[in-house]
């Protein structure tokens, strides 16, 4: 019984040592892992913001193009053709 208790204590001590080393390793690498996660998150946010900006820029350009075409082709036609059709 004593031998088994000794073995259990020895195993317990070894496990504690292994867990402490593992915990120290995690603590040492955690700032690097956190920085890597933050860097990826920042990159994703920047990419998302850039995509949103280009979408708004594209919409603005499309609206400007439509307004220009409207002025050139629809608003510049003489109103007489429209009036003469309504009098008939």
Description:
The protein is mostly helical and 88 residues long. It has one domain (23-87). It has helices at residues 2-74, 80-87. Keywords: Membrane, Transmembrane, Transmembrane helix. The chain crosses the membrane at residues 53-75.
Descriptive terms for the model:
88 residues, mainly alpha, rod-shaped
Quick overview:
Keywords: Membrane, Transmembrane, Transmembrane helix. 92% of the residues lie in helices and 0% in strands.
Number of strands: 0
Mean of all residue-level pLDDT scores = 80
Tally of structural domains = 1
* Range of strand content: under 5%
State the shape: rod-shaped
How helical, in percent, are the residues? over 70%
Ends: how far apart? Answer: 117 Å
Order of helices and strands: HH
Largest sheet: none
Q: Uncertain runs with pLDDT below 50, 5 residues or more?
A: none
Structural class: mainly alpha
Rg calculated over all Cα atoms: 37 Å
Number of helices: 2
Transmembrane segments: 53-75
Keywords: Membrane, Transmembrane, Transmembrane helix
Chart the SSEs and their pairings.
Blueprint (H helix, E strand, L loop, with lengths): L1 H73 L5 H8 L1
């Amino acid at each position: 019984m004593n031998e088994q208790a000794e073995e259990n204590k020895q195993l317990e001590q070894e496990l504690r040592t292994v867990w402490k080393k593992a915990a120290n390793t995690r603590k040492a690498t955690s700032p690097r892992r956190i920085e890597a996660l933050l860097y990826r998150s920042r990159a994703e946010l920047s990419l998302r913001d850039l995509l949103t900006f280009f979408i708004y820029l594209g919409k603005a350009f499309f609206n400007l193009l439509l307004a220009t075409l409207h002025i050139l082709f629809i608003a510049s036609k003489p109103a007489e053709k429209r009036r003469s059709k309504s009098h008939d």
